[in-house]
């Protein structure tokens, strides 16, 4: 057996790496994750905020398992995010442990002191073979998130029932590029969301968004073949009070994501979360030509947002647990 480094530059090597990772993800009833080109661009290109690479454990022509690594460059430079996936035929043979050893060695050489990873588990217990592996190797569970899904499209009748505009706010929408007049306020809102979102006991720093970082992220998303629908609520003073984003990738248009939804603290209690979500559903569904599944994750402690999702029709399908290992 040998370890192969993967950087996204060799298309054939990366496709084998990706296919193994994706096959493991698709064992879940409702799989999620980046498409092939989305993932390749993330790994192959240079980014100011992060870099990604990977390792594969191979035996001749057999790919036994892989590790995907995200190295953060602006904040959270003390950690590496890792995802380990082992082909079904080679589980419980030491493949995962060998990959973890290699990841720890690389992280230590880079001066990182913490590994972080997300693992899917049962909707009620949160447990899985992945959580058992993490616990066995000394990882500590730090955050539990509920994975909910919603089948689309929603009928116009259903959307009309849900639609509850809030007096005193204007709804503004855009697609792939934040309008220049909103870029500063939107970057500030993204930073506030990063601070506000429940993170349990994770040893992680919130992201610091700037207009430049936002523009870079938008350009990267377009190159990946991803699309995004944004809806914001603006108060009478022209301040961005709430936003939501949904989207997906052109490589798998049936797999969509509810990304951030955020309401500034001083505007909460007015149902603004629902007020921005419903018009965003209309925007998203206008481009659908087939049934789709919309995925979202929220910390189980985030009862208000989970309640909004339940009201919309989302249902729980899994838990995603976040683990950390001091190295």
From TrEMBL:
Keyword set, alphabetical order: Acyltransferase, Transferase
Residues in N-acetyltransferase domain copies: 1-155
Stored SUPFAM superfamilies: Acyl-CoA N-acyltransferases (Nat)
PROSITE patterns: GNAT
Pfam families attached to this UniProt entry: Acetyltransf_1
Superkingdom field: Bacteria
Protein name: GNAT family N-acetyltransferase
């Amino acid at each position: 057996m040998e370890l192969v480094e993967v950087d996204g530059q060799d298309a054939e090597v990366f496709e084998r790496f990706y296919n193994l990772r994706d096959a493991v993800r698709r064992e879940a009833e409702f799989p999620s994750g980046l498409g092939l080109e989305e993932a390749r661009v993330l790994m192959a290109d240079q980014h100011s905020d992060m870099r990604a690479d990977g390792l594969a454990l191979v035996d001749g022509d057999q790919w036994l398992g892989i590790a995907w690594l995200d190295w953060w460059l602006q904040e959270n430079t003390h950690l590496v995010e890792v995802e380990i996936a082992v082909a079904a035929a080679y589980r419980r043979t030491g493949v995962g442990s060998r990959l973890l050893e290699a990841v720890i060695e690389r992280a230590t050489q880079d001066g990182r002191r913490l590994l972080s990873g997300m693992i899917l588990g049962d909707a009620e217990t949160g447990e899985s073979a992945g959580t058992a592996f993490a616990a066995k190797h000394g990882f500590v569970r730090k955050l539990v998130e509920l994975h909910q899904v919603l089948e689309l499209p929603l009928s116009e009748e259903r959307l009309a029932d849900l639609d509850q505009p809030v007096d005193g706010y204007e709804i503004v929408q855009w697609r792939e590029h934040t309008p220049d007049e909103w870029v500063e306020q939107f970057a500030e809102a993204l930073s506030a969301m990063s601070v506000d979102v429940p993170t349990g006991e994770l040893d992680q720093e919130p992201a610091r968004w700037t207009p430049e970082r936002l523009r870079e992220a938008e350009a990267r998303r377009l190159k990946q073949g991803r699309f995004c629908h944004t809806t914001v609520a603006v108060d009478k003073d022209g301040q961005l009070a709430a936003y939501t984003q949904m989207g997906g990738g052109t490589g798998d248009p049936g797999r969509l994501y509810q990304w951030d939804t955020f309401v500034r603290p001083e505007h909460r209690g007015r149902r603004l979360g629902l007020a921005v979500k419903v018009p965003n559903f209309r925007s998203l569904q206008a481009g659908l030509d087939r049934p789709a599944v919309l995925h979202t994750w929220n910390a189980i402690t985030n009862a208000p947002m989970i309640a909004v999702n339940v009201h919309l029709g989302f249902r729980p399908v899994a838990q995603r647990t976040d683990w950390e290992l001091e190295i």
